[in-house]
Each structure stands twice: as structure tokens, then as C-alpha cells.
TrEMBL record:
Protein name: LysR family transcriptional regulator
Coiled coil: none
Family the entry assigns: Belongs to the LysR transcriptional regulatory family.
HTH lysR-type domain: residues covered: 1-58
A molecular function GO annotation: DNA binding
An annotated GO cellular component: protein-DNA complex
Species of provenance: Siminovitchia terrae (Bacillus terrae)
Keyword DNA-binding part of the UniProt annotation: yes
Keyword terms of this UniProt record: DNA-binding, Transcription, Transcription regulation
Amino acid sequence: MDLHRLRCFIKIVEEGSVSRAAEAMNMTQPPLSIMMGKLEKELKVSLFDRSGRRLTLTRDGEFLYQRGKELIASTENMVKELSEHNDGLRGTVTAGCITSANLFIIPDAVKKLREEAPNIVMRVKEGNSSFVLNELRNHKIDIGIVRTIFEAEDLHISTLLTEPLLLALPPGHPLLEKKSISIADLRNEKFILPTSSHGSGIAEEIMEACHNSGFTPNVIYWGTEVFPMLFMVMKGVGISFAPYNFSRIHWPELPNLVPLAEPKLETKLSLVTLQNHYQPSTVVRFLDITREVARGLQP
């Protein structure tokens, strides 16, 4: 099979039309259409349903799109492996991660990687868990670091870091005078919580703890990032929660972060890679370094 034609086919599917794919590849539409005709002739199947105005795939087209992406990724990995074999440890590692991982893990991991393998270039894409997992499944990143809890047959998921959840209280809050704070003490508070984009996360754990203590929290704000929520706490809007490592940041703009005595709430960062997928030695080295850095951050 002509891999160039396969790449063009995949581009057409992802762009949603032949014209947009041609523009993205800096070519005109007619040659691309001819190329797809030759691909269909080569494979002896129809890849597109041309009966409607919109471009849709046949079942054969859907099959080729999924397997074609795997084939292209496998081919690219083979080229990387040959390059490493001939030239030594060099290349690019692309990671996708949530903000907290980009704050506390990636900087030290990149520093250590530069010391041990200066010919490896690091590329990082930051976003929520859904974004990271989508990029991973589309072979746009090598590894992902997320906080939400989930299961997936196509992914290998391992715990990278487990840390306590700390309570964020506004300046002068009466609970700051208590030696021991339980979740029941928060019954009358206004809660500022993070939304989980995929699976179960911090908010679900807090909601469950509140329900187990006999009340439903008064959630006045659902956010996506920890820092904006902590700034809102600082302004007295409500209370919130943050992973332990945020207490390492000593900014006067951040509120007090105190432990909960009951129950002991924890949150986990997970390392995610594609199941049964070849990992170049550059990625394997970065995974090892990432795990080493995470062990040093364990409370």
C-alpha cells in the first residue's frame, strides 16, 4: 500500500472534506481526488459514500481510517527506532498533562532529562484530562498525566503520585483557629469545586465525603483550574480544596491550605500510555525520569 495515499486519506477524514484537506496539504483538490480513486482501486473497495452532499465513510473506509492511523504510527516509530539505533538516544518526546503536573513534575523531569540526554527535545501540551486522553488516542502525544480515575481497555494506567487533599480557607476564617477540622465542619460553607472532564476526580471524592457526613455541599462555583479557584477563596467567595503540592507554592495571593482530620482525602496523578504500543527508548527514558521525580514529591 502507498503510505502517501494512506496519509492523504487520513487527512481527508480528519479535515472533513477533500477541499479542506487539499488546502491543508498545500495542493489542489483534483489531484487529491484522483489519488483517492487510485487508493480505492488499489484496495478494491469504496472508501467514501458519495450519495449525499456531506463526505461520509463506508464501513471499509472507517476500518481503513482506524487501522491506517495505527499503521502510520507504527511506521513512524520504526523510523525513530532505526534512527536511535544508528545515532544514539535522540529525538522528541511529547507529553500531555494537566496543569498541576506541568507545575510540579514536568520542570524537574525536563531538567533531569537535559542532564542525562541533551539530544532529546521535550514538547508539552497542557489541557484537561479529556484533551490529554484524546491526544493520546490520536497518537499526537507519547504519554499523558491526568488526575481523574477511570478504566479503559486501550490504555495502560499507573499511579504516579498520591497526595493528600488540603482544605483552602479564606484569611480570617474561624476554622483556622481549630486544631482539627473535619468535613462535617464544612456543612454551612460555600463550596468552590473543580469539574471532572473525564472519569471521577476531586469533586466526586469531596461530594461523597460530604454525603457520608450527612449533608449535601452548597456548591456555588464549578471551575476547571486550581489557581483561579484558590484566588476566589482568597477573596472570601467560599472554600475549596487543592492537592498537597500546591502548599509548596508560597505566594501571598494564595489562601491557607490546611489538612482535614476526618476523613483523610487523597488525590492521585496517573501516568497513561497506549496499551500494547511500542515506546521508543527516548519515551521510556522520560517515563523513568518522570516516575523518579514523582517519588521525590510524595508527601
